[in-house]
């Protein structure tokens, strides 16, 4: 491709709306163009890179036994109501009506349709196991689309669905997909972490995310350098800092006027925050819930939502708290019986806690569970943090920022039971098909690659997913000798099978070098009058500080080594 023909223009300045490196660089490099918030046109350079990602995905999915299909993005809302997920997705679900005023949705995912497909095509255990996949456009009405292709409202995604007869067979399929995903990301030239994760609104049980480490990532990962444990902060378990137990003291009410925060209470009583219990008020599906957790820990709302099996969870408003008789800063579960009481298991890790006195200006000291208060449910609902002990080996956990680029999880039988997708087993009994789901965001993966691979000059594309392999620069192409040598080399490399972007513009050398660094193709070849006089061209990998001269008759050999 010649730069003079490429449907794309680079920008000299950073766009004001760009929030992250990938967003800024993709706009500057002319890879994407914004149509609306969270809606982008993919220009030729971005589309070429995504097509390479898709080719790698297809090859590995086919090798794993997947068969490609294409399901509709436009779906009747009835099947979403049947599974209960219309309410589960809430405002993230795009809704519309057709000309006959029937309710429709633009699908954010395809479990309902693929389950119906399985119901029509799988009738016997002899039809199992089976797997289908697609690369299709999805729609989610994100409340805060951001970061270019990282969080958008319309996006391309590979999603695969497996169908198995029993849990043992699903385990085999799941492990196979974990291996396939590791291979896909490795072939893209992108190191990822496979971490334990929450399944989100789609449901399921065993679940892993593939995280691309990047400082700008919106996911926080807890990892153990000793045993390899890794989990998204939404799901991560940890050994919470232990507290030395003391002889139980007598429960006592003390005056604490104006003390309404854990930090202030700890300072006033001259105790660590871990010797306090704090109360947090939530509304779970319209019900007031009082959470009790040790003062040095934070509530993990994903864990809490899962523990309560709640569809909707949010912090209670001051008005709701007041109506329930809860006083911010001074509430505890002692003597409370008009609200649902839930405790983090940290209430068992320590004793003689300071807690709210349930009236303004007072706190209890020496509160102990279960002597002084009861809760209906106890579970791990705390956010795992940097420095907590690994749940497997006890080594201190560390945090890593990253971008989720893939997600695999076991769906089980919820969809097949709801939509009656059954099969006859070997004994002639009707049983629900067991499902798994496996997704990769194609555009998100491209943006994540740029977040992970860039410098202050521009993108540094991993060779397997670069739009072109070689950036050929002709300096002063008006010079007959330079122009002729560059044209001949361009034709020669294309005949040899290399993907070449040929900068044949009449721009200055500085502009061309800056654009080459911005676009970040793996190898840059420079044809100039000085190089031609030496019978050579300059070759440089994008990540290298300096290039080297390569004889014109050895360019293909040099490229093979540089691209290896």
Structure description:
- The protein contains 15 helices and 29 strands.
- With 564 residues, the protein is α+β, with helices and mostly antiparallel strands.
- The protein has three domains: 21-71 and 108-236 and 399-451, Bira Bifunctional Protein, Domain 2 (BirA Bifunctional Protein, domain 2), CATH 3.30.930.10; 252-379, YbaK protein (Alpha-Beta Complex); 468-563, 3-Layer(aba) Sandwich (Rossmann fold).
- The strands form seven sheets. Strands 3, 7, 8, 9, 10, 11, 12, 21 and 24 form a nine-stranded mixed β-sheet that branches. The chain has a five-stranded mixed β-sheet with strand order 16-14-15-17-20.
- Strand 1 (32-36) and strand 2 form a beta hairpin.
- Helix 1 packs across helix 11.
- The chain is globular, with a radius of gyration of 29 Å.
Helix count equals: 15
Q: Can you tell me the CATH class of the largest domain?
A: Alpha Beta
The third-level CATH topology of the largest domain is BirA Bifunctional Protein, domain 2
Indicate the percent of residues in helices: 25-40%
Strand % is: 25-35%
Shape: globular
Q: Regions with pLDDT < 50 over 5+ consecutive residues?
A: none
Main sheet record: 9 strands, mixed
Class inferred from helices and paired strands: alpha+beta
Total count of domains: 3
Distance between the termini: 22 Å
Q: Roughly how many Å is the radius of gyration?
A: 29 Å
CATH homologous superfamily of the largest domain - what is it? Bira Bifunctional Protein, Domain 2
């Amino acid at each position: 491709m010649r730069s003079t023909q490429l449907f794309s223009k680079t920008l000299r300045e950073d766009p004001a709306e760009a929030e992250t490196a990938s967003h800024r660089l993709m706009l500057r490099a002319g890879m994407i163009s914004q149509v609306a918030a969270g809606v982008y046109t993919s220009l030729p350079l971005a589309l070429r890179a995504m097509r390479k990602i898709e080719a790698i995905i297809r090859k590995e999915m086919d090798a794993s036994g997947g068969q490609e299909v294409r399901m509709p993005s436009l779906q009747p809302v009835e099947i979403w109501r049947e599974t209960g997920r219309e309410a589960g997705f809430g405002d993230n679900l795009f809704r519309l009506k057709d000309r006959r005023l029937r309710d429709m949705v633009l699908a954010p995912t395809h479990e309902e349709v693929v389950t119906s497909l399985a119901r029509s095509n799988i009738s016997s255990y002899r039809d199992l196991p089976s797997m289908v996949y697609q690369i299709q456009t999805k729609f989610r009405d994100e409340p805060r689309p951001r970061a270019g292709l990282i969080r958008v409202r319309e996006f391309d995604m590979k999603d695969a669905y497996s169908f198995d007869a029993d849990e043992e067979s699903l385990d085999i399929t799941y492990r196979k997909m974990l291996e396939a995903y590791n291979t896909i990301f490795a072939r893209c030239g992108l190191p990822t972490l496979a971490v334990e994760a929450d399944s989100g609104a789609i449901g399921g049980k065993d679940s892993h995310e593939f995280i691309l480490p990047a400082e700008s990532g919106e996911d926080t990962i807890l990892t153990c350098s000793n045993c390899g444990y890794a989990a998204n902060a939404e799901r991560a378990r940890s050994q919470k800092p232990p507290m030395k137990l003391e002889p139980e003291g007598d429960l006592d009410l003390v005056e604490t006027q104006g003390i309404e925060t854990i930090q202030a209470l700890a300072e006033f009583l001259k105790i660590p925050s871990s010797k306090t219990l704090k109360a947090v008020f939530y509304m779970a599906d319209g019900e007031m819930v009082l959470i009790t957790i040790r003062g040095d820990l934070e509530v993990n709302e994903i864990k809490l939502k899962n523990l309560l099996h709640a569809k909707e969870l949010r912090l209670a408003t001051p008005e709701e708290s007041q109506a329930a008789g809860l006083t911010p800063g001074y509430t505890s579960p002692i003597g409370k019986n008009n609200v649902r009481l839930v405790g983090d298991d940290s209430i068992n890790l320590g004793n003689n806690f300071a807690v709210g006195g349930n009236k303004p200006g007072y706190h209890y000291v020496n509160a102990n569970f279960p002597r002084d208060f009861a809760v209906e449910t106890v579970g791990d609902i705390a956010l795992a943090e940097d420095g907590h002990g690994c749940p497997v080996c006890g080594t201190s956990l560390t945090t890593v920022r990253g971008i989720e680029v893939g997600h695999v999880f076991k769906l089980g039988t919820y969809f097949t039971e709801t939509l009656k997708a059954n099969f006859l087993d070997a004994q002639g009994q009707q049983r629900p098909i067991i499902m798994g789901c496996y997704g990769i965001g194609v555009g998100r993966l491209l943006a994540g690659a740029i977040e992970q691979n860039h410098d202050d000059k521009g993108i540094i594309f991993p060779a397997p997913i670069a739009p072109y392999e070689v950036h050929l620069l002709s300096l002063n192409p008006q010079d007959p000798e330079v122009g002729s040598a560059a044209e001949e080399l361009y034709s020669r490399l294309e005949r040899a099978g290399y993907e070449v972007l040929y900068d044949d513009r009449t721009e200055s050398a500085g502009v061309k070098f800056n654009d080459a660094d911005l676009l970040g193709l793996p190898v840059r070849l420079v044809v100039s009058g000085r190089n031609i006089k030496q019978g050579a061209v300059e070759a440089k990998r994008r990540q290298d500080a300096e290039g080297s001269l390569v004889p014109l008759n050895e360019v293909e050999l040099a490229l093979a080594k540089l691209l290896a």
